[in-house]
Amino acid sequence: MNEETIKYWQDFCQKHQLPQNTPVTAWSFGTTSDKLANLVKQGLKTATTSAYELYTKDEPLPQVGDWNIILDQAARPVCVVQDKVVEIIPYEQISAEHAYHEGDGSYQNWRRIHDEYFTKEYQEEGNKEFYPQAPMVCEVFEKID
User: What is the pTM of this model?
Assistant: First the structure.
């Protein structure tokens, strides 16, 4: 984390009476990060989906209760969210409700966006092929501040 993000987290911890050493992860969305971070800040995006198989050994899976700082494209902090639900679900079984909480409009639009995104992600990860049964990490979070 850069100095601005560390200070942002320290201020958040003080405001919300959390210990300064409370673990946090800072990250931005893979595509259109400014747009998606803004949707989270507005409370219009309260979920995200990532490919389980593309997590590395050094990258822990999200857990209920995890704190996250959402960053914009320039790696500046936008807001803090906390994971409330984390499930691993085959891509083809992700519900329209989860898709709705991702803020992409209709389920069909969500599928189009995510089909393209995961196809590209899998190809970039050593020429892997994305498939409908691919396990996905589905997070539902709450914007805290």
Answer: 0.90
